[in-house]
Amino acid sequence: MSARATSPLRVLVVEDEPLFAELLEACLSDLRYEVLGPASSAAAALALVRDGNARPDVALLDIYLGERSLDGIELARRLLAERPLPVIFLTSQADTASFERARQVCPAAYLVKPADPATIQRAIELAVSNFARASSAGPGTADGSLYATPGGAALLPGAIFLKEDGLLVKVVLHDIAWIEAEGKYCRVALSGGRVVQVRQPLRDIIQHLSSEYFVQIQRSYLINAEHIERIDPVRNMVQVAGNILPIGLMYRDHLLERLRLI
Asked: pTM (2 decimals)?
C-alpha cells in the first residue's frame, strides 16, 4: 500500500463564505485529501496551525476574509513565518493589484473562482511535489547572497545579512530606505546614503521583510514606509529618504489605503 493511501495530504482551507467553504470541503474530501478547517478567518487559521496536531501539507486560501480579518495575503505571510509550506490562493479577486500583492509571498498557484476539482487537484499535487523538491535541495539560496533562516527561526529578526565583497554585512531592517530591482540584482539603499548591491531578485528579498513596514510602489521598487517624507498622488511620486521615486498606477491606491490620511 502506498504512503499516499495511508497518509492523505492535509490541506488547510481558509474561506469565509460558508456555502463555498462547504462545497470546497466536499470537493477535497472526494479527492481523498484530509481537510483542516475550513477556517473562516485568519485568527482561526493561525490557531489551527499552532495546534500541535494540525500540520498542513499545503494551504488553500481565499484572499478576502471579511472586513475585520487579516486578508489571505497577510495570513500567508504569517503562516510562512510559523512554518514553510506551499500556499495556493483560490479567490474571486481577479484584479491585477491583488495578483501583484499575492505574488509577493511567492504562492505555488493563483486560482480564480470557480475552479473545477481537476484544476484544484493538479495545483495541490504540483505545489506539494515542487515544495518537497525545493526543500530537499537544502536551505538558503544558490549563491548565498542573502542569509536568513526561513520559518521564523532566524537570529536577529530585525536584521538581514547581505553578501558584499566576500563578507556578510549586517543590515538593520529599519535602516533600509528602499530597494530597486535591476535584472538579477537589487540595489538596497540605506538611510545613511549607502547602497549595497545584492545578487538576488526582489521577489526573494520581499519574503524576509515585514509587510507592516515595507510596501511595493512599482514592479521594480520596494520602500520602507518609515522613510516616506512626502507623496505626490497627482504626479505619482514619493520622496523616500531624500530620493524621488515613481509610484506605479496599480500600486498607488494600495499604498494610500494603508496610510492614515487626515
From this structure: 0.53
